[in-house]
Amino acid sequence: MEREIVIHVEELTKQFGNFTAVDHISFDVVKGEVFGFLGANGAGKTTAMRMLCGLSRPTSGTGTVAGYDITRQYEAIKKNIGYMSQKFSLYEDLKVWENIRLYAGIYGMKDTEIARKTDELLERLNFARERNTMVKSLPLGWKQKLAFSVSIFHDPAIVFLDEPTGGVDPYTRRQFWEMIYEAADRGITVFVTTHYMDEAEYCDRVSIMVDGRIDALGTPRELKERFCARSMEEVFQGLARKASRAD
Amino acid sequence: MREFGAFVKKEFFHILRDKRTMLIVLVMPVVLIILFGFALSTEVRNVNIGILAPSPDPMVRQIADKLDASEYFTVTQWLNTPDDIHAAMKADEVQMVVAFGQNFSGGLLSPDGSQLQMVVDASDANMAQSYTSYASGIIAAYGSEMTAMGQDTGILSQVQFLYNPQMKSAYNFVPGIMGLIMMLICAMMTSISIVREKEMGTMEVLLVSPVRPIYIVVSKMVPYFVLSCINLATILLLSVFVLGVPVAGSLAALWLVSLIYIIANLSLGLLISTMAQQQVIALMFSGLLLMMPTMLLSGMVFPIESMPWPLRGISCILPARWYVAAVRKLMIQGLPMIYAWKEIVILASMAVVLIGTSLKKLNNRLE
Known about the structure:
The complex is a heterodimer. Chain A is built from nine helices and ten strands. Chain A has helices at 45-52, 74-79, 96-106, 111-124, 140-151, 170-185, 197-202, 220-226, 232-240; strands spanning 5-16, 19-30, 34-39, 60-65, 68-69, 81-85, 158-162, 189-193, 205-210, 213-218. Chain A has a domain at 90-155. Chain A is 36% helix and 26% strand. In chain A, a hairpin with a 2-residue loop joins β1 and β2 (19-30). In chain A, the strands form two sheets. Chain A has a six-stranded mixed sheet, with helices on both faces. By secondary structure, chain B is of the alpha/beta class. Chain B folds into two domains: 2-40 and 168-366, no CATH class; 47-148, abc type-2 transporter like fold (3-Layer(aba) Sandwich), CATH 3.40.1710. Chain A binds chain B through residues 53-57, 75, 78-79, 81, 83-94, 98, 101-103, 105-108, 134, 151, 160, and chain B through 2-3, 6-7, 10, 13-14, 17-18, 200-202, 204-211, 366-367.
């Protein structure tokens, strides 16, 4: 069965003066997929992701995200995606429910719907008692779970996760990835960047950027076979060694 | 619009839940007013002076009594020879000596007049200026009294202090403090609060969301706008009821100028926030590039007229300079608004330019 394509990118390029941050990249991501977007620092991951999120306009190339053109319909794109970065993106001095209310409101959700889904979410996360807790007094792992739940609260087509597990212990990371799978099962496409190669193994497909280009793209198993490597770590090391750009 | 309301509410939460900042913001104006009003006064009060009179005749005594009776001076020493002046000054017993010539009262009635000299410790030049002008004032007043009594004394100088007859320093610093506080709250706090969101990573999330960036920044400005208005009211109430500095002109005009000034500073804060990535940088920007020049060059402490031209030039680009000048005219001198048109036009143009530039920079950054 052919699955619906939610991100489609062709020859996407971004230049800053003489510097080509993203160099003619092309790829597709299908609905419900967990797509790993890997690359060393400075390889162009962030720039590429900013273009997909409608924060930056491509120099050349085309692309659609959730069916909208990234060069023209970026306002529509913003309504249909979620975003979370490693900084957790919640307001520390707002209560748990206030954070949810604020972000849900931004995406135009109705008050009654927000109230219903907030109860549901807090119940599911076993957070009901923390409803009125200031986010700053939550443990790191909880903040992270909450931040992720908030980023998909409005049921976006795609959620972009920018190194979501930076600085978190392996156990919490594992739990976090369970949440990612749950979201993917609900049909939300997950576009995730990471520096942890064990996490790369969890992805359905992985792309590896080197010097602004995508040098490898496929399932973790395919990539390991193609590069005769035992782990994604080795695949990544082999590719990254060829990079000419320093950090 | 509903979302804008939610954002404004969130900004108020940020401020209200940060008790320390809240306290500083609301208490700072009160502390500054009290400090400048009662402790850091540049007024002349109970300055010790000496009188050098080789022949202490009745008229010399009368003048000395007048000086002593004023709240400004206390006559602590009667000196006999000019050498005593230096001795008394060095011992820090007196700050000023009023020296009368030989046969002072006799000389007054003669066509040549008689001589009086003020020797003053000028290590603090500004205060020395004040001492001599206060003393001259008292002596002149004595002179006109004598004239009125039919004695032609030959002391002719007459001084009248307009708008601030009691020479209160509060009249000078109240406009300055208004300028400083509103700049601190609007420019500094706004820029820091926007940059904080960049640092925390929440700004990124907001930019990826459908909310319009202009909503984000305008909602940041609203609470600081409200706080500035509260502070302005506090300062005015304190200055009228505690310091006894009246609002001589139209209160409405004063508020109008203040609102323009507040808007200019809010946009300045936004401009700083588009340039700084970290709160420390925003603080440095507003502290060093705004606060220092505002305190030193806006005319709130030192008179602009006596600055060399490069500094006068710099003072022209400070919104506070024009604001302080306008407040002096509207509040202290009680002039109608038309007399402050130049300041108002300059402030308004500054506000327009600042809003334009900062919004343009904000949009560029997003591109």
